[in-house]
Amino acid sequence: MSASAIFVVGGAFLASTVEMVEALTIVLAMGVTRGWRATFIGSVAALVALAVVVAALGPLIDQIPFTALRIVIGGLLLVFGLQWLRKAVLRGSGYKALHDEEKAYIAEVEASEHAGHEMRAGLDWYAFTVSFKGVFLEGLEVAFIVLTFGTSHGSIPLAAAGAAAGLVIVGIAGILIHAPLSRVPENTLKFAVGVMLTSFGIFWSGEGAKVDWPGGDVALLGVIAFVLAVALGMTRLLSMQRSQAIGRQKLAGEGVP
Amino acid sequence: MKLLENFGRFWWDFIVGDDWLIAAAGVVLIALTAWLVSVGLNAWWVLVIGVPLALYATVKRAAR
């Protein structure tokens, strides 16, 4: 397997794992507090809807001319990657709270306990809709990553296999542990996915704009290393700036000139 | 109409996300790269330099 294929599979696997951990937290909270029937049907309905979206978008992608496709795919990867990386840098530097599955689980449980009990089509409608939305919205991002990553490498099934592995592992872990997967290093994984998406985005949108990368395809490894170094450096810089700002505020509060 | 509005808002939130600056920077950087290449410059460095600057700008906006 080539280096870029490993990155495609690895990126889709990590993205899927992170998003499915978040979806699992919602599904568990609904199942435990509202019952498993509506929760299970809502989750399965969301997976079917996701499969329909992928099946509809896959052939559409094939219709787009290759050069335009590389720019569109590269641009989407770049924008998604920067969104992930922005959150990761803000979390790593302390400007945004780290994502905590325990807290997210407790919030979902509290919300579901205070929600009404409307029945539709023989289902607890709240449990059905919350499970559906949770799985669908978290899964949609994975579906986009699979389509864009897969298309960039010329193999959607390869990226889909990486994502499916993440889904299966998180699903089995959820069934066995029966609790939110709070030990998964979610924030670190999000950082890694952000670096990979951004790097692929830079590389592919550059290819779409018809640049000649120094060293050809090997340049992708250099771009990944560069983006990683920039993101780590930025996290460290912001963290230091935040510590200094807090220090100044403390001194001002104590009346020190 | 409401359905259309919700549909549009969903895709805006999904693609543009928390800060429109990211999407705008992506479009501008790719367009600039394509234009420089079209006038004969191998401008691979535009994205490599521009993306970290865009990232810094968006995290600084959020950290304020």
Keywords summarizing the entry:
heterodimer, A: 257 residues, mainly alpha, two-stranded antiparallel sheet, 2 strands, B: 64 residues
What string, H for helix and E for strand, traces the elements of chain A in order?
HHHHEEHHHH
β-sheet strand percentage of chain A = under 5%
Structure class of chain A:
mainly alpha
Overall geometric form of chain A: flat
Q: How is the main sheet of chain B built?
A: none
Descriptive account of the structure:
The complex is a heterodimer of chains A (257) and B (64). Chain A is 82% helix and 2% strand. Chain A has 257 residues and is mostly helical. Chain A has one domain (3-253). A two-stranded antiparallel ribbon of chain A has the order 1-2. In chain A, a hairpin with a 2-residue loop joins β1 (119-120) and β2 (123-124). In chain B, α2 (20-38) runs antiparallel to α3. Chain B has one domain (17-63). By secondary structure, chain B is mainly alpha-helical. The chains are: A mainly alpha (257), B mainly alpha (64). The interface between A and B is medium-sized, with 40 and 30 residues.
Give the SSE map:
The complex is a heterodimer of chains A (257) and B (64).
Chain A: H1 3-34, H2 36-63, H3 66-92, H4 101-114, E1 119-120, E2 123-124, H5 125-153, H6 156-177, H7 186-208, H8 219-253
Antiparallel strand pairs in A: 1-2
Chain B: H1 2-15, H2 20-38, H3 45-63
Helix pairs in contact in B: 2-3
